[in-house]
Design a protein that fits this description.
Rossmann fold, 11 strands, five-stranded parallel beta sheet
């Protein structure tokens, strides 16, 4: 593979472990021991994806995610010892695509990296239109009534799935596997956060959504 993965982690042992597994799968690995260095490397070398620890010197993972999202839409995986829901939600809200708590299985990290990159590589030239929403799958741009709406990569993947099949009900697992590629136990909350953020961006009243509808006990659909 030609893809390069940026690892921002202040623990050298963890960086070494991730590098071993990722290079074993053919990825090029870029490393940084603090957030500021990671941001500089990202600007200079444009990695295909980033794996970011939360607790780092200079600039933490949340701050780094926010900085990267100002100019880049590369997939971001948050890796942290913190497993509380509020930390996970904050990372996803800032634009991260996925979140794994330590201790982790490096094989799972590799699987998630591959899945994110597969989804990021999907291209097409069609424009999906559902009511007042238009999603250009070539430029990854969403507009509502002609006004642009910025999406994170994960939000784009979820919305594209829904808009390709308006009226169809997707379970959380189907959405997650369609956007990421592999479902892992405990990923339900991650999908709920992404749906919530999408509603904040596309709904006039996110508490009373008219586009992305919850079908109780089943999942979600986008109204035709």
């Amino acid at each position: 593979m030609d893809a390069s993965i940026l690892i921002a982690e202040d623990d050298a042992d963890i960086r070494d472990l991730l590098r071993l597994y990722l290079e074993g799968e053919g990825f090029q690995v870029l490393e940084a021991g603090d957030g500021a260095t990671a941001l500089r490397i990202a600007r200079e070398q444009s990695p295909s994806m980033a794996i970011l620890d939360i607790m780092m010197p200079e600039m933490n993972g949340f701050e780094l995610t926010r900085a990267l999202r100002k100019y880049s839409n590369i997939p971001i995986l948050i890796l942290s010892a913190k497993s509380q829901d509020n930390d996970k939600i904050l990372g996803l809200n800032l634009g991260a695509d996925d979140y794994i708590a330590k201790p982790f299985n490096p094989v799972e990290i590799v699987a998630r990296v591959k899945a994110q990159l597969r989804r990021a590589e999907r291209t097409g030239g069609s424009v999906l239109t559902v009511r007042d929403l238009s999603l250009d799958t070539a430029s990854f741009q969403l507009t509502k009534n002609g006004q642009p709406i910025l999406l994170t990569p994960m939000e784009y993947k979820i919305l594209a799935m829904l808009m390709r099949s308006p009226g169809r009900i997707f379970t959380k697992i189907q959405l997650y596997e369609g956007a990421i590629g592999t479902y892992f136990e405990g990923d339900d909350n991650t999908m709920m956060v992404h749906i919530s953020k999408l509603r904040e961006k596309i709904e006039d009243d996110p508490k009373n959504p008219r586009h992305i509808i919850t079908v109780r006990g089943l999942g979600y659909k986008i109204e035709k």
